[in-house]
User: Fold this.
Amino acid sequence: IDLGPFLSDLIENMRPIAAEKGLRLRTGPLRGRVESDAGLLRSVIQNFLSNAVRYTARGGVLVGVRRRGDHLRIDVIDTGVGIAETQIDDIFTEFMRIGEVEVEGLGLGLALVRRIVRLIGGRVDVRSRPGRGSRFSLYLPALDMGGAQRETGPATRSRVGGMRPLRVLTVDNDARIVEASRMLLEAMGHRIVSARDIAGALAIDGPIDAALLDYQLDDGENGLDLAERLRRQRPGLPIILVTAENSAAMRARATAMGIDCLAKPVAPAAIEAFLAAVSVREVETE
Assistant:
């Protein structure tokens, strides 16, 4: 992968969102080549970029690439709220609060990023100062112009190349959201099956690789009740809850069930990261 055009494309896609917030989105040197899975690498950098823009109120975001020995370091640097050193490990948990900013979904995305990065043989580093901003960095082995690269990570091309499209169940009582989900997931290369209630979801035949469930369904039904029944029917099914609900009771129940929550409206990068992590798990168990 030539990082110049690859990163430039991601940056341009994020630029309108940054502009809406009055943020500058700048680039430093982007030179360098790596051997990696483009989809997984895109998920990681999109996560860094979307978090940087989301949690920066003033200033901007800088993206650049630096050579560090045999590795390239891809940096996403922001002038956002910043994180205390003692809290950096905590940002890899599902939910936390940094200063006055509700960082819902940040840890979920980073937990998935951590898994993806392990597969592609990289390493994540975070440097931050409260009130000054953060630098999220991805280290990957550099690919020289002759194509040589050292095997420094657990992943090989054959394992990463084993990724396959997933069959994803989407359940929401709003037909418009179901259709939007279909368009998004198909654009990512996945296949979708959908339902609007518990009975419809349980009646679906064939394999399901992952499920995206709304919490508030019709007639008193909810996504966690459905999740319990799906896992009895399909043990080990990866499930994520997509919801506008934010009650402590709902979150506690989801946590006890080992189900992460994404708050509506959901960034496509977060869904892509979840599905990439499902693919990672499947590849690692082969």
About this structure: The longest strand covers residues 60-68. Residues 119 and 155 are 5 Å apart (CA to CA). Residues 94-108, 148-162 have pLDDT under 50 and may be disordered. The two ends are 26 Å apart (CA to CA).
